[in-house]
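Problem 12. The chain below contains 234 residues. Write out its predicted structure in token notation.
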Amino acid sequence: MEAPLVVGYKGEIGRFILAGLLEDMPKANDIFCVDINNSEDEVRERIRKSDYIFLCVPLQHTVAWIDGFLPDLSGKILVEQCSVKSFLYENESYKTLNLLSMHLLFRPSATPIKDRRCLVFSERGSSADLAAFSDLMARALKTSVVSIDSGAESAHLQHDRLMAYQQSLVHRVILVLASKIQDEHGQTFVGQRIQELAERIEAGDPELYRLIQGNPFTDSVVADFESSLRGFKI
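Solution.
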């Protein structure tokens, strides 16, 4: 990586990635940044000069951004950050994009370093390039990085199936459960922790969490959980 571009560097994820790159790379002026205040011509100029593009715009604006600059992305490595990946990998218009997928499994402003984990995968690049990128992210972001390998099921489907459990289902269960145990005088220690987790989720971006619930595997995961809950035996 010689000339990364961070798109959306004023948001929490973009700001976090930019800070890591600034810490790790030898020269700050090798790093480019753009946000919503830049003109399209300024964005295109920085895209032209970059090799890796960290796309850190909100999930709901990802497609519009890519569509707006699609001709300019040829030959670039687009590092997307979306919580759901299928809509990118299954879009025929993006078949030629060199996508490298990344997902921070934490909120930088609220998660201790020891609890931070990041998933990465690439269905369109070499394993050596992915390994080098993973090492860079682990070092620059001080984060444990785990790769998803394409096997019997595509990596993006593995990711979305995993996130249907880890995000869609977890968020839904915690919020519903917390709503049933709000009497603070009767809360157990575990009940208090559930309430705290619910408050953490509620403090996040509601639009993002609604989109996370739109994960294509959510319905089947919820059905599986309901079946397990009804048949639960300790």
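Discussion. Residues 6 and 150 are 27 Å apart (CA to CA). Students who got a different answer should revisit the alignment rule from Section 12.3.
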